Amino acid sequence: MSRASRNDDALYMPAEWKRHAATWMGWPHHNADWPGKFAAIPWVYGEIARHVTRGEDLRLLVENAAHEARARRVLEAARADLKRVRFHRWRTNRGWTRDFGPIFVRRGRRGKLAIAGFRFNAWARYSKYRKDLKIAARAARALRLRCLPVTLRGRHVVLEGGAIDVNGRGTLLTTEECLLDPRVQVRNPGFTRKDYEAVFERAFGVRNTIWLGHGIAGDDTHGHVDDLCRFVNRDTVVLIQEEHRRDRNYKALQENRERLQGARLENGSKLNVVHLPMPHPLYHGGVRLPASYANFYIANAAVLVPTFNDSNDREALGILGELFDRPVIGIHAVDLVLGYGTLHCLTQQQPREIREA
Question: Which end of the chain is more exposed for a tag (fewer CB within 10 A), N or C?
């Protein structure tokens, strides 16, 4: 959808690679997400913060004054730019800010920022989420932005940020496993493909949805696309691929590859598809973890990519390095992925305001 075609009320979601005013994150506090490894996790956050604050502000959610003090000590030791960190003492259940945090959109011709007010229900899997549910509205109040409830037929729509990825031009990626499974982790009971596409058009200005099939093994969100396939520019995606036929991911990833071969963008042109390798399987207590290079985060100063002490780390970083106009930096995520997510799951971008001429 071109800027000229937008009316004063139309919403659209900017692509992640567009300039940010800030990145939102929640400082870790839920020890059970990283069993036996929690002590290492704040230092991973510190490394993320160091790279983020080189190019934008960091808005950090903390539980209270003591939690903020601990975060400050780690950030200072990690050499993050504390002048660019804004703390918000807002209690959360967990730290997966991509999914419960503010999803920013632009409104109309002038591109005024707003927040798309989706509901959050902990991936239709966990019972404790009431604190997380309040964060998007609190962010809207803090930033003096409108929080626009997203509804369909009188129902408040549930959607997590990790379930979608956009090119900022009218095309969106998602998976059938996450949104259309009628039995497992059902976010919006009874919603059809057309229902979701209507929501995407209304909330994000999306007129073209590319539906992939299944996500990757070990993903307890039941198929988030940000572990699977991501836009890197307006007409190019990276798709993870598994070479080993006996691996649980092989068949599903091959099917997604076939779907993308026939996919088209909002202007009818073919999609460029670049393949990323998968790291070797990681397990904890016999449970497969969702380790994926696709869970990268595009910050202003760098693209931050999870790495896993794996022989494929270098190849993945090299492929992504050829696709972006900013440094590509690996962040050690072997401990982080114990929480069933990595860098993209922890972050949410706040676009920069458009300055009027």
Answer: C
